[in-house]
Amino acid sequence: MDHDIRHLVDFIDASPTAFHAIENLAAKLDAAGATRLPEEEPWALEPGALYYTVRHGSSLVAFRMGLLDPASHGFLLAGGHTDSPALQIRLEKQVHSRGFDRVAVEMYGAPILSGWLDRPLGIAGMLALREGEKVKTLLYRSHEAAAIIPNLAIHLNRDINKGFEYSLHQHLPAIIGIETLPAGFHRYPPLLTRISEELGIKPESVIAAHLNLFEQTPSCTIGNDLLNAPRLDDLAACAAIIEALLSAQATAATQVACFLDAEEIGSMTVNGAQSVYLRDILARIMLAGRNSGQDFYRALAKSFCVSVDAAQGFHPGYPEKFDDYYTPLLGKGIAIKSNANMNYATDAATALRARLIADAARVSLQHYKAKADIQPGKTIGPITASRTGIPAVDIGHPMLAMHAIRETIALADHTAMIAFLRSFYSGA
Hints:
27% of the residues lie in helices and 27% in strands.
């Protein structure tokens, strides 16, 4: 397994939630000598230096200052999202079912539900704790299997292989163990008690929690050319962007990498692509240089954005779902994504820019458009373009089983994605 793939696998397996992904991205930046900038403090920025800022623990914007003024050379911006479809735990609710302790769940985003059943699941996320009159956040991850959602035996559901709709409320609460106390004797939900004991905290100190179930089984290669892993949408993009940024050299333009939460639920959060987070960071970069008011808008006009998110790769079991002319194949290069309704940001000018970047990197590009009678998902690309005025192109790894608990990409396409982004950050 080569360096780039090993880094991807390690990053995914260490990042069961967006909070963990940001912690791991920040660790990479710290190791590279980056300076962390609190949003509430004034910023003093130096040409060629590497910086980053974190909002709400699940979004991060990193940047390397250009050697020349951004007003003259703009921003080279690449972005992905840190969240993935999942089952989110309702921690406060106690669910006791004739001898079983269970945890209630709800869908985060649009996961393919069937894959979550009959496999060992972990629990991970963020806890908010009361410390006097202050709030402290704490990351949590179970390092052993902590839950399971069992199917009903086929003898009791003979039609399950003909298609079955799972009820989130009834079928999908996960079993976390055998009940040790009769219902009504629990002071706190059993999962909260278990996590509190593990972390050495008092259950009553937990005032809020954002916990997900996650796939416990590590990432793995299939044959010599495929990677099967959880959360490839969109941690593969995040891994490629950070590798490209950290291996790049300073240029005249300011290089920016954004890793934003909440894409899977519409991005309308305080740190999602629909927020002012990214635009405010770009503005603060300009303000730190004591530029004039017009210089911010000059910088935006000279900038370019690459939005990196998964692309639907051809699936041989469902050929009728694809337009042969516009369907990328795994292992044949990264895909430019476009859509008439601008679910993706790509237009003719930005597609040309992407092709020039790819030519400089010597990587192949494919073209993805959904079949004409199917509308694709959306990305942070058009949102970022509309919020900042920066032209953008949408690209992605061709992927199988997008939004499944495990997805599949080609190793060669990830290597190509990093090469493309390195070429982009070099100013190609």
